[in-house]
Amino acid sequence: MYTSFMFATGIENSIPTINNGRTRIDQMEKCGHYTHWQTDFDLLKDLDIQVLRYGPPLHKTFIGPGRYDWSFADMTFGEIFRRNIIPIVDLCHFGVPDWIGNFQNPDFPDLFAAYAEDFAHRFPWVQLYTPINEMFICAQFSAAYGWWNEQLTTDQAFVTALKHIVKANVLAMERILKVRPDALFIQSESSEYFHAENPAAIKPAEIMNARRFLSLDLNYGRRIDSEMYEFLMDSGMSRDEYHFFLSRSSLRHHCIMGNDYYVTNEHRVSADGLTRSAGDVFGYDEITRQYYERYRLPVMHTETNLMQGPNGDEAVNWLWKQWANVLRVRNTGVPIVGFTWYSLTDQMDWDTALREENNRVTPVGLYDLDRNIRPVGRCYKQLIHDWCNVLPAQSVCLAVPVVRPQECDEAPVSRQQERLRLMRHKESKEDDEPEATAQGVRR
């Protein structure tokens, strides 16, 4: 019932809209998964990968309040169960159904939480969830950069999107735990760092380095630093909305801090606040240490990739470097429980961050879109083979209580769920204490 390390990949299911909502970029469609989903699951077996970041397309499944089209989910999750694959279910990936509109809609959190609970009822054997993928990036790209969905560029719009996204994530965790009390939540969040180019850029870089933590601070009920608190209040968050997040801090006990790292995650900041890519400066291990010291939660490397370039070994070398970073993180005492090359197949149009529909292949997959293995796929298969039995021997104590789909009805699992159900009931009662009582223990 326990797994010591999760080697994973994912099937890309981003669904943002562009062109003021007129065009939806559906990666499952563009990458051929709707047609080749059975083949894609076969590829997992070829690689000996047992953990898959995966989710049904939200815009096709959630067709109205309390209304669903489960047809594709029933087929794919039925096959995932039959194959005994461990899914990390990604319920919302950068977009919402047309009838919800975008992340400025204040109804989104409650609507999404209901969807999450109904999904959990339909697939009660699912234990691992990423309710909303990359909450910070979703808010940043949609409501600060103006690239996706609402395509806005103000602080007010960013904070509105952020508070709705994180509240939806928090409420979804609560609702899923009602159905599956031993559920575990793996936040897939972008790990960022901003480097000042010169002394005049120190202040804007400091602000950006504080802002990068906002989504996880709210999600884990951590008190916001004073400068960011003023930013949130000045940009439309109310005190009651802020205290909602503080009151849900017990949910962090059910969480693994999943963090993503790409070559674009570190930024150079100029004096005027503009940013550009800095490349791999600190690296995954140093930035992960910063996030771990802030939240003190188990860690999983939930996304990385690099395009296969003209030499053919660029992605292979990046895989080696990321794995070396994971081992460094683990060897310095951070409880890291998994690694993910994202994604299983190549993607489309990520060279422009899905801002344009050019239908250009982004060659970052373990397989190409014809389902032929890439060099990085062969190397990842070998890496898994080489390390899968070594890591458990390094620490028999570092294990995650993951239940395989076909074991979910076994007696030990039921006993553990009942124990956690009672524990969660106690946590919920503590979360619901009057504000005056809660203030008495806050510093």
UniProtKB/TrEMBL annotation:
Residues 416-429 have a biased composition (Basic and acidic residues). Pfam families: Glyco_hydro_1. Residues 411-443 are annotated as: Disordered. It comes from the Bacteria. InterPro entries: GH, Glyco_hydro_1, Glycosyl_Hydrolase_39. This is Family 1 glycosylhydrolase.
